[in-house]
Amino acid sequence: MKELLKRAGGVCEFCGADAGLEAVDVPPAGEVLLCPACRGEEDVAADHWRCLEGAAWSAVPAVQLAVWRKLGALSEPWAHEARDAMILPPEVEGWTQIAGAVEHRDSNGALLAQGDTVVLIKDLPVKGAGFTAKRGTAVRGISLVADNAAQIEGRVEGQRIVILTEFVRKR
């Protein structure tokens, strides 16, 4: 814990808070030092997570992976943009692609991979964007939601949206 405190400068490696710090394991990268809010033990406003935009620039692989995973768990458009903009070293990039986590499959059971193109099989109203993504729309360069096999992300009409895998088929 001493080495972790020294590396982090005695503050949360996400938001910079200095109270209630504990080590959190980020397999397979190692540990990060987080405050109770960033560990998910306290309710925080959605804008609290904007701290991840700065934390994404950390040189520590475990912090980079933890930030990448947390950004993927958030539903705000800025979080998806920040995650897409992250430049990860090859080692960390490899950790994001670990196959053992979850398998994403389309409506026909075909395995989906990062960067695939899918086609919508149903009209989908996009909440908060004021439009409907039409059946037959191709979504190129999808991203896989790391912790949820039922969700992928992609751009439709310039908007980054979350799409349920049951409503797509692989092209």
TrEMBL record:
Pfam family, one: YjdM
PhnA protein N-terminal proteobacterial domain span: 3-43
Keyword Secreted tagged: no
Transmembrane segments: none
SUPFAM superfamilies on file: Prokaryotic SH3-related domain
Keywords annotated in UniProt: Hydrolase
KW Hydrolase (keyword) present: yes
GO MF annotation terms: hydrolase activity
Protein name: Phosphonoacetate hydrolase
